[in-house]
Amino acid sequence: MTDRPSQLALRQTPRILSIAGTDPTGGAGIQADLKSIAANGGYGMAVVSALVAQNTRGVRSVHTPPSAFLRQQLNAVSDDVTIDAVKIGMLAQLDVIAEVRSWLSACRPPLVVLDPVMVATSGDRLLEPSAEQALRDLIPQVDLVTPNVFELAVLLDEHPAATWAKVLEQGKRLSACTGVTVLVKGGHLNETSCPDALVNTQGLLPHSVVEIALPRIRTRNTHGTGCSLSSAMATVQARTGDWAQSLIEVKEWLQDALAHADDLEVGQGNGPIHHFHRLFARATAASVLTAGVS
Predict the structure, then answer these.
(1) Is the Cβ–Cβ distance between 248 and 40 less than 8 Å?
(2) Tens digit of each residue's pLDDT (9 = 90 or more) over 209-239
(3) Which class is domain 15-262?
(4) How do the domains of the chain map onto residue ranges?
(5) Burial, 198: exposed, middle or buried (Cβ in 10 Å; 0-12, 13-18, 19+)?
(6) pLDDT tens digits for 89-148?
(7) Closest CA to 234 of 4, 2, 3, 8
(8) Are strands 112-114 and 43-55 parallel, antiparallel or unpaired?
């Protein structure tokens, strides 16, 4: 079980802090987190853990600022703002993980979601091998961990699963050894549907597996999907307090964001999802209505 006390107070507009790396093209990392938080009704804040030179075609280089400066950023936020939830993304080095862990222990935010950024969709490794065990040790301090298929395998020191059933089994093992709820994702599997499931073996959910499957959206523009999903889950959970309900709401939003991703035409590789598709649709409908009235 997690050793952090739960003090979650639901808010209509929760204050969400993203601790993550950057993406100059705006589709992943902190930029995607802030869009995702806003799109799902939260107020987003951001602390930079890594500066990443990347685009829709891949990662070129990573610069990690000193961990002391990372702590200064974290303290600057938590000394002033009540944080309702934290989403943690890319923590590229051992000292960065240690600093975030220390801050979590001191600050004790009521809700923490960890997206263990280790392997990008492009195949790029985003975590130093020496830091892998430190990231595993961080998991018991969070409430939800959201690995992709490849990251789930790395966390368990196993081979990646090739079927949804085997991915679920790996999720159960990770939950059992950490006491934490695992969001198991099927996006990287070559299946007709795109299932996701909340897994907890400690009795923290109505059932040990809460699964939701929607049709797979056929698009190459999936850049930043994991970042966006995890930050959306932190935001909606801080509003609802119900993990299953949060996953339903987030999955529906993400499904539409993927369905409209091709509209953006950003980049020459795997472009971003359309975080604000609903806002754009309402604005277009309002413009049509106004034009009709005039």
Answers:
(1) no
(2) 999 989 989 999 999 999 999 999 999 999 9
(3) alpha beta
(4) 15-262
(5) buried
(6) 999 899 999 999 999 999 999 999 999 988 766 566 668 778 999 999 999 999 999 999
(7) 8
(8) unpaired
The number of residues making up the chain comes to: 294
- CB of 255 within 8 A of CB of 237? no
Is the Cβ–Cβ distance between 106 and 142 less than 8 Å?
Answer: no
The three-point CA angle 200-203-209 to 5° equals 40
pLDDT > 90? residue 60: yes
Residue 48 phi/psi, 5° resolution? -85, 120
Catalytic residue IDs = 185, 222, 224-227
Tens digits of residue pLDDT in 172-182: 999 999 999 99
Which candidate, 114, 235, 228, places its Cα nearest to that of 178?
A: 114
The DSSP letter of residue 54 is: E
Whole-Å CA distances, 24 to 19, 55, 59, 108, 274: 16, 7, 11, 31, 16
Q: Tell me the backbone φ, ψ of residue 61, rounded to 5 degrees.
A: -165, 160
Give the model's confidence band at 2: pLDDT under 50 very low, under 70 low, under 90 confident, else very high: very low
